[in-house]
Every structure is written in C-alpha cells, then in structure tokens.
C-alpha cells in the first residue's frame, strides 16, 4: 500500500517494529503511523524511492511527488536502511533548468533502525540531500573496510559536518550561528527549520555546479567525486574531467555565500517569493526587520533628495585643473609633467551650509586634485618630488608599463627625494589615475588628498569627439568621489581630516562626508543635452551604487581601462573603491529649470550590513546596520547612519545635483559601435590562455571566525576587540616574497574569489583585463569593458583574462580597500624572469 502526501503529517510509533503505513493528510488524530521524507534537491518529482535493508534488498518502494514521499507499512528488522531516490525530474535552483535524472542516478540516505524509530517518535521526517548521499556512501565504505555501523556513522557525520557544513557557513563569523554547525543533517530536526538549512545547502550545491561551469545534472558526478575524495578522511580536492582541480569545501563555501548574498539582494529588491521568505525566516533571518530597514533607508534617501533638490546654497562643482605638457609642444610625441607631493595645503571645503578650511596633502600645492591629459603613443616623463616626511611613490593605476616605473612599494621615493618616471603610454584611451603606493601608508596618503586623474586619450576617442559621437569640451566632466571624516569642531574655521581614529576604521576607512571634486553636495549647471562624466570612486573603502534620483537611465560608455565596444544603458552602477566609469546622461528629458540628483542607493552590495539584520544575532558592533541616509552630516544633513563620523557602507547618499538651466540643440549622436580597429573589438577567450591551470586568488578575512583562512573557530564568542586580518590565498603581504609567476607575453585566466562577508575590490597592476564570467555566468553589459579593478561580492568568483605582452617585472595585486591593502591584503606577481623583489 502506497500513499503519497504533500503535507507534513504527525506520526506516532506504535511498537518497536515500525509499521509504515500511508495515510491521508488532515485526517485528524487517528492517523496511522507512516514514515515520511523529502528529497530536498530540486525537489525531485516522480523519483523512484526505494527502502532497502542492510542486505541491499528492497523492502518497499514509492514515488516522490514534488520531493515528498511516504512509505507504507513495513516491519523494521534490519540494523540500518538505505533510502534511495533515482530518476525523476527537478528544476535546478541555480539555472532554473529542468533536469531529468538518469534512472541510475539520484540521492540517498542511510538511517539505522533506531534513527527511523526516533524520526517517528519525534515527529520528524527523513531528508535526502546531496549531503546524505555522500554520507551514505562514506558509511557503507567504512563498514566495508571493517568499521562497525556505529563507528562508521560517527566518523562520516563528523567528516560531512566539518567539510560541508561548518566551514561553509556564510554566517559563521556572526555570533549565534549555531544552527548551521549543529543539528543532524540526516534528519529534519525540528522539521521546518532543518529543512530550511538542508534546502539552502542543497540549493548551494546547484550554485556550485553552475559556478564550476558544469551542467546541472553533473551534480551527481560531483557528488561521486567528492565522496571518493572524502574516503581517506579529508577533503583534498577533486579533479574534473577537463583537468581542473577543485576543492569542494571551498567551492561549496563560496557558493553558499553567493546564494546568501543573492538571497538578501533579492529580499532587498522585493524579488523573493513567500515560500523563499518563509525559508529565510526559518533560518533565523528577520525578514520583516530587514524589509523595514530597507524601506527606512529608501525613505531617508528620499528625504535627503527632497531637501537638496530645493536647497539654494549648494556650492558650484569645481572643474578639476588640467596640467599641460611642460614644453608646450604637442607635436613632439613627448609629454613632461612635474608632481610635487606636499603636506598642509590649506583647502577650502565648500558645503551647502558654509565653508571651512582643511589642511590636506596635495600635488603641486593645488587645493584640488589635478588632472593630466596624456595621449596614447606619446612618451611620458614625470618628475616626482616627495616633499612629505614619509616614503611615497606615484603609482600609475591602470597603466600598462614596466614594473620599474609602476610606482610600487618596492621603489620607494624617500622624503626629500625625487624620481623621474618615464614610460610610453601604449594603450587605449581610458579614465586612469595615479596615487601614492608606499608600503603600509597608501591609505593614509590617499586619504590626506594625494590622488590625481589621468585621462588617457587616443585617436579613436578624438575621432568620436570630433564626429560628435561623444559629448566633449565643457560637456565632459570628471567627478572624483571621495568620502572623508572631518573633525567635528572647527577651531578658527579649520577642521582637520580624521584618519583611523575609530577602531572600526581598520576594516576600511569610512567617513561621513562625501566630497565631489573637493566640495560637499555641489551642483552643476547643464544644458538639456547629452553630458559625459568620468565618474571616479577614489574613496578608501566606500562602495557606491550610483543612480539618478528619479531612477532615470544613463549610458555607460567606458570602464576602468577604456571605451566599451558599444554603450550600455543602465539605471544604476555599483563602483567599488578605485573603479571608474564614463557615463553619458541625457538631460533632454528634463525641462529647463528642473533638477536631478546623483545619489548612491542604500545597501550597495555590502553583505556585512545586511547580515546585521539577522534575527537574534544582534548588531555588528557598529559595523553593520543599513543606517539611514546619514552622509554629508558635516553639512548638517542628518546623521542617522553615523557613528562618530563613520557612515556604514551601503548607506544611501546624496552626491551632487544637476541643474538643467539652459536649452540647447543636441549636436551629439552617441556612437553605437567602436571602430573595428579598437583593441576592445579584438576577441579574446579562455582558449587563448597560455596557463594550463587557471591562477587562483582567494580573498578572505580572519578574526571574526574563519572563512577559509586560519583556524579561528570561536564564532560564538567573538567580540569587537579582535583585530581582523585580510589575506589573499591565506597569505599576508611580504615585501620580500613574490607569490605568483607569470611567463613573459603570457595570456592568463585568473579566478578571483571572495570568501568573506564583505565585498573586496581586487586590483591587479601591469595590464588591463577582461571579465569572462561571474560565478560561471558569461560577462555582459559593463562587464565587457577593460577592467583593472573588480569588485568581488561575498561568495563571488570572477574569471578574468589578460594578455601580459609588454609587462615586465614585479607588480602588485591587492584589495583596493586601502586599509585592507596596508594590512597585507596584497601580493607580488612577477611577469617574466627578472624582478626586483626579494633581491
Ligand atoms: Cu590603485 Cu596598487 O593601486
Ligand atoms: Cu594600480
Ligand atoms: Cu578588502
């Protein structure tokens, strides 16, 4: 007798011999005992479910319906049972593809007679998941090798828990993350809650398979391989048929983080179904609290926008000063500039609520960051004078130049000393920049004001501008966005910059005041035409989610390293520290006299703050919280998200205002496709790679509990007095160590992964890179452009490719959250055989 039922039914145990009989749902207190379970993966529909005894003999069988199954009456006599699910079909959670399961493949679980009885007594039901499948094989294998059933179970459970559950918990670093590390994954205890976790991990398996660029149905093969890997008692790595080595524990952990991040993002955007929300609730996530915070953050931003849309006191946007070639000769293919870094340049900070003076560090005593416009193909000579009292350098961020000229920490320029940087500019037009890169003090020097813009031009760009296919001239503006913290009290009208005066600043320096070209909340008068902006996030640690206050579309025409082959229309763009884009805004839709603001939307990609929404887990000691829209607090614009001048990453911000003040006929028609000669149009694919093994960069954090780095597991006792560590591939920076060796003229695929709860902008020197995929999904939109900095979200894995032709020497790769970099989230890679490091 076989009955299927969808609903959970409470069951009772009649005798020591387990009688498994079917029943109808909702039939009240007189339900006969049945044994029920769930095939969590998928869930799998119409799978054949067989209950086998310890001799492998089929005792009874049934068919699953949307994952649920019920066995009819059986006498339990065997020491253990294996419940196997084969065949059927399911919708893969990661790809949404329908998977028909081969009749010989499927999932299984193993339960002892006692466990089956307990399931009935405690009103549980059995869960059949990818984990239980591996578990079953491990138990059977141990017994084959002579272990007792009891011992085999203990060691297999421990192994699965250690390799698949504990180390992969995305919330491990939070106090209170007990559910994921305890509880029995073979059964659902208590039913609802454990199923939520089991389901979450089953879905993560799909993510992992997708992220490994395998077909959904390959999940069963991966399970087999991983089982084989674990048979010796540890996870050493599996080899895929294409030769790739995969550590399943870390691949799975990444996928779990990715799933968690995707889920909270969907929640934020209102894209979760009621069932998905319920599952999250069961996992301890305060769904309503999160929704309320999101709504509040949006409201706060709207209030800021409403206020500043009508404000009459906004300062006028500064146009950054452009330096000119010192010999004045534009035809000689040579450009010469001088940059002197000096301290204590008195800068007037203009704000909507009055001005003050701040001593800053600047180049050439200029109160504003300077702009160099160089031309590709020309030789560059840059005379640098260090007038600081500490080593400094000029690093040419985004340039493809020999390492000896790249301004890394291995070529420091001492206080009072000078250095001549000379190189040929040999790459497509791009919004590049420059900044100091001394060992352990990059963050401070940039923060104090040393950073400049380098707009590299080339003939293609010039042609687009002269052909009126890109706005230019006074319709082409650099916007340098940086957040800062100023001393709250002015003394004689002077407010000093504060750097790392709060403990949390070690995790990334976040201020409460956003400067655009040196001013707080400036406005720019524009005509009702297309305008182009080179938008630079030159903040030490803040990520922005840039958008227009009315949510209008705008067009991205360039990324870090050059123009896009074709412009991409978006309604927001997330920029991590050091990322740049060029955008074109069409003001034609606005009436003359109207205004629109540039804002940063709340909760821009920082899971850290989202995780503080976890129910019962408490806050993150000032780290998280979506805060309100508290920025610009120095300008008196409210401070709900502020703790002593630190506005949480992800807080909504008002950035600047565009006042559509004049009417003009449009003369520009935006290009739709770059000429075929543009370098970006040259195809490059993974098959061009000369490295047979993709290079791996795994970013992680320690000190709050461990995500794949060292062995710190006291996740429940972490408090705020632990200093965090930031590492790549488990290693902190060593000035005398080269970590990666790239052959001269190589083309390499790099895998950049983030196994930590916050986003990190990974930056590599030497060349411009192209993104191939994110978590196995091919690049599209703005990801198709040249990039030197990649904001990698928690759990994300980005595959990039680069042609190292022309690069030579020792270059840096690092997180561009400058406090992470200074703390050691950095390494050297050598291109070619010779280098400077460790000599
Ligand atoms: Cu802009 Cu090594 O960095
Ligand atoms: Cu750089
Ligand atoms: Cu970082």
Strand and helix layout:
Blueprint: E1 35-39, E2 48-53, E3 58-63, E4 68-71, E5 80-86, E6 89-91, E7 98-100, E8 106-112, H1 113-121, E9 126-128, H2 130-144, H3 149-166, H4 191-211, H5 219-230, E10 238-239, E11 245-246, H6 248-268, H7 274-282, H8 287-310, E12 322-323, E13 334-349, E14 356-363, E15 371-375, E16 379-386, E17 395-397, E18 418-424, E19 430-435, H9 442-447, E20 452-457, H10 459-466, E21 476-484, E22 513-516, E23 519-520, E24 523-527, E25 530-537, E26 544-548, E27 554-559, E28 562-570, E29 573-575, E30 580-586, E31 595-600, H11 607-611, E32 642-643, E33 646-647, E34 653-662, E35 695-702, E36 725-728, E37 738-742, E38 747-755, E39 760-764, E40 769-774, E41 777-778, E42 786-787, E43 789-792, E44 797-803, E45 809-815, H12 818-822, E46 826-831
Parallel strand pairs: 1-9, 12-15, 13-16, 15-20, 21-25, 24-34, 35-38, 37-46
Antiparallel strand pairs: 1-4, 2-3, 2-5, 5-8, 6-7, 10-11, 13-14, 16-18, 17-19, 19-20, 21-22, 22-23, 25-30, 26-29, 26-31, 27-28, 27-30, 31-34, 32-33, 35-36, 38-44, 39-43, 39-45, 40-41, 40-42, 40-44, 45-46
Helix pairs in contact: 2-3, 2-5, 4-6
Bound molecules: CU-O-CU linkage (C2O) and copper (II) ion (2 copies).
The site of one copper (II) ion has 6 residues, from loops.
């Amino acid at each position: 007798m076989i009955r299927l039922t969808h609903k959970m039914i409470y069951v009772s145990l009649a005798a020591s011999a387990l009688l498994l009989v079917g029943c109808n749902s909702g039939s009240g207190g007189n339900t006969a005992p049945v044994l029920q379970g769930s095939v969590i993966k998928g869930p799998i529909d119409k799978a054949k479910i067989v209950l086998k005894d310890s001799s492998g003999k089929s005792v009874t069988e049934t068919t699953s319906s949307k994952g649920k199954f019920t066995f009819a009456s059986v006498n339990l006599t065997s020491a253990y049972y294996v419940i196997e699910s084969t065949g059927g079909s399911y919708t893969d959670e990661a790809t949404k593809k329908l998977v028909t399961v081969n009749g010989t493949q499927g999932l299984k679980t193993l339960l002892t007679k006692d466990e089956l009885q307990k399931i009935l007594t405690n009103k549980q039901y059995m869960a059949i998941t990818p984990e239980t499948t591996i578990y079953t094989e491990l138990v059977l294998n141990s017994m084959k090798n002579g272990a007792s059933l009891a011992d085999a179970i203990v060691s297999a459970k421990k192994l699965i828990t250690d390799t698949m559950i504990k180390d992969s918990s995305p919330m491990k670093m939070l106090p209170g993350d007990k559910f994921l590390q305890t509880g029995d994954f073979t059964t659902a205890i208590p039913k609802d809650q454990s199923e939520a976790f089991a389901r979450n991990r089953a879905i993560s398996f799909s993510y992992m398979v997708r992220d490994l660029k395998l077909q959904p149905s390959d999940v069963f093969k991966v399970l087999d391989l991983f089982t084989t890997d674990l048979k010796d008692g540890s996870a050493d790595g599996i080899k895929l048929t294409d030769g790739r080595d995969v550590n399943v524990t870390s691949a799975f952990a990444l996928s779990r983080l990715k799933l968690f991040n995707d889920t909270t993002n969907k929640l934020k955007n209102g894209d979760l179904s009621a069932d998905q929300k319920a599952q999250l609730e069961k996992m301890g996530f305060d769904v309503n609290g999160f929704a309320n915070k999101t709504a509040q953050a949006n409201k706060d931003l709207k209030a800021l926008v409403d206020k500043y849309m009508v404000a009459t006191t906004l300062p006028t946007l500064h146009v950054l000063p452009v330096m000119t070639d010192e010999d004045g000769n534009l035809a000689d293919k040579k450009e010469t500039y001088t940059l002197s870094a000096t301290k204590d340049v008195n800068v007037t900070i203009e704000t909507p609520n009055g001005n003050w003076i701040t001593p800053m560090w600047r180049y050439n005593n200029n109160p504003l960051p300077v702009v160099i416009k160089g031309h590709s193909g020309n030789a560059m000579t840059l005379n640098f004078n260090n007038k600081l009292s500490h080593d400094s350098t000029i690093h040419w961020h985004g340039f493809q130049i020999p390492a000896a000229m790249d301004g890394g920490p291995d070529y420091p320029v001492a206080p009072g000393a000078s250095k001549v940087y000379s190189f040929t500019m040999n790459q497509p037009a791009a919004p590049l920049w420059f900044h100091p890169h001394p060992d352990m003090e990059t963050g401070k020097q940039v923060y104090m004001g040393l950073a400049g813009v380098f707009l590299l031009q080339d003939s293609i760009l010039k042609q687009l501008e002269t052909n009126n296919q890109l706005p230019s001239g006074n319709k082409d503006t650099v916007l340098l966005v940086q957040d800062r913290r100023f001393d709250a009290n002015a003394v004689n009208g002077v407010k000093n910059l504060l750097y790392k005066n709060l403990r949390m600043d070690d995790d990334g320096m976040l201020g409460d005041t956003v400067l655009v070209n040196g001013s707080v909340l400036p406005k720019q008068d524009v005509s009702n035409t297309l305008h182009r902006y080179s938008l630079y996030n030159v903040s030490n640690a803040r990520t922005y989610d840039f958008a227009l206050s009315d949510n209008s579309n705008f067009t991205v025409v360039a990324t870090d390293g050059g123009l896009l082959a074709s412009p991409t229309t978006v309604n927001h763009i997330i920029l991590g520290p050091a990322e740049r884009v060029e955008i074109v805004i069409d003001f034609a839709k606005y009436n003359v006299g109207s205004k629109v603001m540039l804002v940063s939307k709340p909760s821009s990609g920082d899971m850290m703050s989202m995780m503080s929404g976890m129910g019962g887990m408490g806050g993150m000691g000032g780290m998280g919280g979506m805060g309100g829209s508290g920025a610009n607090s120095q300008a008196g614009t409210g401070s709900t998200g502020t703790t002593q001048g630190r506005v949480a990453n992800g807080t909504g911000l008002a950035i600047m205002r565009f006042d559509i003040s004049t009417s003009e006929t449009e003369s520009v028609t935006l290009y739709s496709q770059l000429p075929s000669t543009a370098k970006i149009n040259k195809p490059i694919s993974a098959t061009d790679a000369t490295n047979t093994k993709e290079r791996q960069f795994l970013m992680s954090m320690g000190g709050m509990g461990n995500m794949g780095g060292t062995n710190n597991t006291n996740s429940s006792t972490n408090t705020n007095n632990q200093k965090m560590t930031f590492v790549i591939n488990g290693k902190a920076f060593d000035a005398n160590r080269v970590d990666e060796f790239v052959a001269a003229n190589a083309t390499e695929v790099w895998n950049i992964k983030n196994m930590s709860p916050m986003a990190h902008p990974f930056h590599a020197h030497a060349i411009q890179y192209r993104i191939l995929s994110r978590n196995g999904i091919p690049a599209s939109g703005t990801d198709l452009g040249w990039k030197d900095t990649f904001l990698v979200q928690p759990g994300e894995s980005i595959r990039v490719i680069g042609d190292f032709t022309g690069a030579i020497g020792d270059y840096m790769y690092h997180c561009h959250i400058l406090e992470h970099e200074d703390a050691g989230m950095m390494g050297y890679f050598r291109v070619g055989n010779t280098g400077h490091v460790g000599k």
